[in-house]
Amino acid sequence: MSTYRYITQRQGQVPVRQLCQVLRVSASAYYAWQRRQLPAPEPAWQVVVRAEFRWHVARYGTRRLRAELHAKGYPVGRWRIRRALATAGLRAQQPRSFVPRTTNSDPNVRAAPNLLLGQPAPTAPNQVWVGDSTYLPKQGGGWLYLATWLDRYSRKIVGWDVRESMPEDLVSAALRRALAVRQPATGLLVHSDQGSQYSATNFKALVARHEAMQSMSRRGNCYDNAHAESFWSRFKTELLDGGSFRNLAEARLEISHYLA
Fold it and tell me: Could you tell me the strand order of the sheet in which 157-163 lies?
């Protein structure tokens, strides 16, 4: 047993200074040792990050938790947040390994030509829109389906829709929103992959009604729609970061805030 620990045990019966004199140790050195034995106070941000993690039902990963902490005045990085969560045994929910298909092309349907091949980049908004759809994990299992239209010039989403299933009308609803808000001039180029939703009669009629031109990627060539694919990668990393949505209403709210 160390001298300081012996003093701690006996200080209830004998004054500390007297013990220090008998044992020939400095009283100030003993008190300094005693202060070092006290646990350091927990940083306030660690309390906040655990509260935010539980408030969002384990959906938020480090990226979104960092945004929450910064908004509350705690400039903490993702690495420190990740370490604090690991120490507390907390981990964001992970989606199931199954990945649903969002592109289902019909080989019997004639695809529109790829009008983007060899064309120069757009020089203004509302000249080229690229569309795609993806799945979003839902808390407790299952998926939500999101369709978007991205302006290739501004790199901004001009129309979107999210649902609990993936009906043929999903991509059309997103396009109708974009057309109503942006009101592009005649000649807009609408590009997508060869999914059956984009080959549907109603979708083609919508494009024709607004005097737009339909373009499709070559079959099995994801690079033809690289702008949309790049957006999904950034979107899922920044908004989800390994988490999931509680329900459809929450997904709509957070997607709306993200795309605003």
Answer: 157-163, 143-151, 128-137, 189-192, 213-216
